[in-house]
Amino acid sequence: MAESSSSSNELGFMARHHFLLRRLHSLSGIIPVGVFVIFHLFTNAQLATDTYQHEVDWLYRTVPVLLLVEISLWIAIAFHAGLGLVYTFVGSKNNVSHYRYGGNWRYFFQRVTGIIALVFIFLHVATMRWHWDIFGWYTPFMVDYTLPDGQRVPMATASVAVALQSIPVVIFYLVGSLSVVYHWSNGLWTAAITWGITLSVAAQRRWGVVCAAMGITLTVFTFAALYGAMTYELNEQERMAYELYLAEGPPEIDEGEYPLPLDP
């Protein structure tokens, strides 16, 4: 008994709590992060239907807990990404050069897309949400803008369109978004195994079809958003508002009506 206890103490924290950490890792990728990804990409897809501004206005006017949602998301992302990086660089190694079976390739791309997704999320939020200028890359998001004459111009669609009408940004957004989609869809499939839901090969195959369908749907949302943004033409007021924003910085915002803007 004493020898068993000593052996347990010699194990690291990760090894002692492997069962719990694996399940918390998969759960954090589904709730709240995965749920947000679905909602986020669906909202962005409204750029193709000219209802994006309406969706953003609804979100900012009717959801009183946006800051709480953002904080919970960052906590979940930090936990999921931190543990994911440990599993990526310290965990078991895949051998795609020797064993080219599908499961091994899925595991390899799960790790690669996880790293790409992490970089994408950081840069996406930093340039649009925090309004950072990273090496000249500056794509701020605005809900609206008040012109000097007092006219309030809706700017949600216009500011996203300006960002996504740049070829480098389009490439970055496409690679980043599709990495997020693959990482989430494949992670959803493996989560069912981790939680003991799909133990048989037949069950895994059926669940794989469902996960693939969800991945394809989110991919359609991604391309719909790109199409809507790239084909959008700014009117005179939107162009003036955007130029004034870049020249003068953000205007004073009535926080009683709008909270600080989140990324689109």
Give a quick summary of the entry:
The chain is mainly alpha-helical and 264 residues long.
Count of beta strands: 2
Question: Count the helices. How many?
Answer: 11
Based on secondary structure, the structural category is mainly alpha
Main sheet record: 2 strands, antiparallel
Which bin fits the share of residues in helices? 55-70%
Instruction: Name the CATH superfamily assignment.
Output: Fumarate reductase/succinate dehydrogenase, transmembrane subunit
Portion in strands: under 5%
* Average pLDDT over all residues: 83
Q: Under the CATH scheme, which architecture would be assigned?
A: Up-down Bundle
Shape: elongated
Protein name: Succinate dehydrogenase subunit C
Keywords: Membrane, Transmembrane, Transmembrane helix
Organism: Natronomicrosphaera hydrolytica
Transmembrane segments: 24-43, 63-90, 111-132, 152-174, 181-201, 207-230
Task: Describe it.
The protein has one domain (20-248): Fumarate reductase/succinate dehydrogenase, transmembrane subunit (3 helical TM bundles of succinate and fumarate reductases, Up-down Bundle). The radius of gyration is 22 Å and the shape is elongated. The protein has helices at residues 2-10, 13-16, 18-30, 33-45, 52-62, 66-90, 102-128, 156-164, 167-194, 201-230, 236-248; strands spanning 144-146, 152-154. It starts with a helix and ends in a 16-residue tail after the last helix. The model is unreliable at 251-264 (pLDDT under 50). By secondary structure, it is mostly helical. A two-stranded antiparallel sheet has the order 1-2. The chain has 11 helices and 2 strands, in the order αααααααββαααα.
